[in-house]
Amino acid sequence: MVNSIINELTNGVSNVDVTSYGIFKVVRVCKSTPDHIRALKVVTSSVSKVKVVLKDKSNIENSERFSTVRIDGDFTEIQRKQLKDLRSDLNRRKENGENVTIKYVCGSPTIVESRKPNT
Known about the structure:
By secondary structure, this protein is of the alpha+beta class. The protein has helices at residues 2-10, 47-61, 77-95; strands spanning 23-28, 40-44, 100-105, 108-113.
């Protein structure tokens, strides 16, 4: 069942074989209400498999068929605060004319010079 859900989401969208994701559990989170779509929590077999899924998420989110699908990592409160502070620093530096972006280096988000020209 898990593979059929993931195959449906990534059918014709993803360049990665869904069996390589190592997904073994999918559960709904939050309470069911008529006006709210409940999120799915997907559990993988290892952290490296999570990285594969998160790396491939733009293929799904940028497709026309799944434009409403959002994939996010399960971050701790400290990680969310660190990323929020990093984004505010990124915005400040961009306003000052720097050509920078956030890149994950060894699993940690870091501000680096962007390869793309400033627009």
